[in-house]
Amino acid sequence: MMIARTLEELRAAREALGPVGFVPTMGALHAGHISLVNAAKADGLPVAASIFVNPTQFGPSEDFSRYPRDEQGDLDKLEAAGCDLVWLPSVDVMYPPKAATSIHVGGPALKWEGASRPGHFSGVATVVAKLFGQVRPAAAYFGEKDWQQVQVVSRMVEDLELPLRIVPVPIAREASGLALSSRNAYLSAPEHKAAPALYAALVHAAGDILAGKEVAATLQNARHALAKAGMVPDYVALVHANTLEPLAGFARPARLIAAAKLGAVRLLDNVPVG
Ligand code: PAF
Q1: CATH 3.40.50.620 describes domain 2-169
Q2: Residue of 157, 178, 176, 160 whose CA lies nearest to 168
């Protein structure tokens, strides 16, 4: 497995590989990230991954400085998964002092995570566009756990006519149903036990909506279920799966999305409806 820490090293490694599948990450890798590597390999592409904890997608009161970091552990996992190249840029490489460009995505970026975390998707879109420019992948693999992020990146790629495919990869879950996330490391043992209630509430709500129950009442029930499990719901919404616009009644393609605070941890999850 090649490791590039400078743009010169990255260029040399990219020339050696030809078209690649790309897995951008912020490290603290878990089985969900490895499923992205596996999806790229299944497409028959050599795999390039990046590890970069991107400061511009964290708000001032968020966890940038304490975000879990384990470079050697991550490299070991990527090597074991058969990754061909890891790109490990520094903050200076990604954001040189003279840089003056950032990307603003409207549409699917405006509500939900976009409203709760101002500036988050601009930080994501800017770093992802920059990584695409550096790595020049044929395809890039994103976990559906961050459903809205996948839609925002897909919109950006289409709008800017960037020459790559975005491949969404289904959510990897614990046996309990809890979606894998690097931030699950912050959960205490009792919180970890309570956390699967988020997925359970979404699955229940999806069933109710498909059974014809009223959407507003179903979402309210889901919020109650989260509160009963000790969470503070931020949003539980039925949305158009691509535009992220709220749906007052069931219409395809639909996705149920939710975010809730459990102790100090913000959990995200989503399920398809129909
Ligand atoms: O999903 C993530 O880990 C990050 O948002 C990403 C896509 C690597 C950009 O920093």
Answers
A1: yes
A2: 157
